[in-house]
Write a structure and sequence with these properties.
- The structure is a homodimer.
- Chain A contains 5 helices and 5 strands; from the N terminus they run βαβααβαβαβ.
- Chain A is an alpha/beta fold.
- Chain A has one domain: HUPs (Rossmann fold), CATH 3.40.50.620.
- In chain A, helix 4 runs parallel beside helix 5.
- Chain A starts with 5 loop residues before the first strand and ends in an 8-residue tail after the last strand.
- About 5% of the residues of chain A have low confidence.
- At the A-B interface, helix 1, helix 5 and strand 5 of A face helix 1, helix 5 and strand 5 of B.
Chain lengths: ~150, ~150
């Protein structure tokens, strides 16, 4: 994988995220590629379809902090101490594309849930990232039976 | 890339196919992974929406022979002498999924044309392969300016 210089790993922070991280570890080996672990949080205004009252704004900040802590914990647990962690706010595929363009990412790695089960919730992210990416995209097939719960 | 034991490389035999092959070469390095170069040809009956008269049947056979020759030529030109070449007939994503399942493929590599230009023609194949794949999928971003013509 020495061909890639900057690898973005998109993580939804589900238990299955660790399958994606393990695959990246296996693939990168002792490569000195730069690694960015990215979680994109949809803004609460997207979810509720309007402006955010003050308490929802505070909730957003709180959720963002929690996501950052969880991302950093995953990075340490899975041997990504040298990776940089980023929590972005917006539409997942769009934010990953933007980050990739602005940071010269040449490989984006995301989990892919296939046709069944969680596809309805997460499946579109891998497709969304693939569609419109300016870099290579590796979709790591999540194996439901191996999920860490 | 030693983590992958059997790599399927899906090729549309366009000039851009060579970008995909070069990336696979770079990634595999001296790995001893099994490599299958696969081109899927849509049957003429799909294109014309009916049964194939005898002369179209002969044309199909001729097209299949030409595709096989082109695939084998690409394999030799790009240093894939040890790869096995397969021309399959059917719907591209479906045939690649079937081949992958039946042959224990753990990584499928396809070209991805992004949003512009050839997307309308080829873009759906990468998405189709991603959706429903039982293995990892690497979409190699085709760089239009580097296309070999």
């Amino acid at each position: 994988m020495a061909v890639y210089k900057h690898v973005l790993v998109g993580l939804d922070l589900s238990p299955e995220s660790r399958q994606v991280m393990r695959r990246v570890q296996e693939l990168l080996g002792d490569s000195d590629a730069r690694i960015s672990l990215v979680h994109v949080q949809e803004p609460l205004s997207f979810a509720y379809g309007g402006d955010i009252p003050m308490d929802l704004g505070q909730l957003q900040v709180k959720l963002e902090e929690q996501a950052r802590e969880r991302l950093q914990a995953l990075a340490i647990e899975d041997g990504f101490e040298r990776a940089r962690c980023h929590v972005l706010i917006g539409q997942p595929a769009h934010e990953m594309h933007r980050f990739a363009r602005e940071n010269d990412v040449d490989l984006a790695v995301v989990g892919s849930y296939g046709r069944h089960g969680l596809t309805l919730i997460f499946g579109s992210t891998a497709n969304g990232v693939l569609h419109g990416a300016t870099c290579d995209v590796l979709a790591v097939r999540i194996q439901p039976e191996k999920a860490d719960h």
